[in-house]
Structures are given as structure tokens and as C-alpha cells.
Amino acid sequence: GVSWGDYNGKHGQIKAHVAQLDAERAAIWVSQTFRYGPPEGRYLTSSVLVTTQAELRREGGRWQMGAIRRTDGVAVERLEQNMDGRVIAVLDHPDESRSLIAELDREALEWKITGKLPSPFWPLPSSSGLREFY
Predict the structure, then answer these.
(1) 28 and 54 in contact (C-beta within 8 Å)?
(2) Do 93 and 99 touch, CB atoms closer than 8 A?
(3) Mean pLDDT, residues 3-19 taken together
(4) Which residue of 6, 18, 39, 110 is surrounded by the most CB atoms within 10 Å?
(5) How far apart are CA 3 and CA 12, in angstroms?
(6) Among 100, 97, 56, 103, residue whose Cα is nearest residue 75
(7) What would the pLDDT profile of 39-91 be if each residue is shown by its tens digit?
(8) The model's pTM
(9) Residue 132: what are its φ and ψ, rounded to 5°?
């Protein structure tokens, strides 16, 4: 057996984000994170992550959803858009020691990794990650 949950005792976490790309286009991401650990363990040590993404197009004044794309092993933790329209995200990826910083390619709707979040414990070595930091 496995102990499923998150750090609040729930069965996972869902985060939704939307970015307006221009007057006729937007994109949405819905990320689901499920944490698990050994049945007798005190900690949830592993993750299952999946992000669902879709492009929205305005047609006749209404938004229509385009093709849906699903990515396993990645969750969009935080998403920000600046005044110039650049879309930057913090991506959780369990194979990485720290969360990734990525910029959206607005035409292809794909993330370009630009780096990792700095460790809050630097210069001390640590594999700890940073979550829910606003």
C-alpha cells in the first residue's frame, strides 16, 4: 500500500492559471499534484504531477477551447505576465532539485526553461525545494 495525500492531509492539489496572449488568444493551464509515501512513513516523499494545457480563441465574441495537451511530470506552480506580455512561470518538476523558471513561447505555447529558483539555503547544500512562496 501507499499513503496518498498532501502536506495538509488532502488528496492532492489543483492550480489553474490563464494568460491573455492577445485580443483573440489566451492559454490555460490546470496542474494537479498528488504526493505519496510509504504506508508507515511519516512523510510524503514522492510526487505524481500532471498539467493540462489548452489554447483559447475568441470566435464571435465567445471563447472556444482548442486542442488539449497533457504533460506528465510537470506542474505550473506560479504564473505571472508583465506589461509587455511576457509570461513567466515557476514549474515544479520532481526530477529537479529545485523548481524551474520558464518563459512561454507565445506562438508554440511551449515553456523555455531559463533557470532554476535559487536555493533559500544557499550557500549551504540542500535538496529542499520552495513551495507556495508569494
Answers:
(1) yes
(2) yes
(3) 77
(4) 6
(5) 12
(6) 100
(7) 777 777 788 899 999 999 999 999 999 999 999 999 999 999 999 999 999 99
(8) 0.79
(9) 55, 35
The secondary structure element, H or E, covering residue 50 is strand 46-59
Question: Which residue matches cell numbers 515553456?
Answer: 111
* The three three-digit cell numbers of residue 12, written as one number: 492532492
- The mean pLDDT of the chain is 86
Q: Which three cell numbers stand for residue 42?
A: 511519516
Domain boundaries, the chain: 3-116
Count Cβ atoms below 10 Å from residue 54 Cβ, excluding itself: 16
CA angle in degrees (0–180, nearest 5) for 114-116-91: 85
Q: How far apart are CA 25 and CA 116, in angstroms?
A: 28
- Residue whose C-alpha cell reads 471563447 in the numeric block: 63
Contacts of 16 (CB under 8 A, 6+ apart): 28, 29, 30, 31
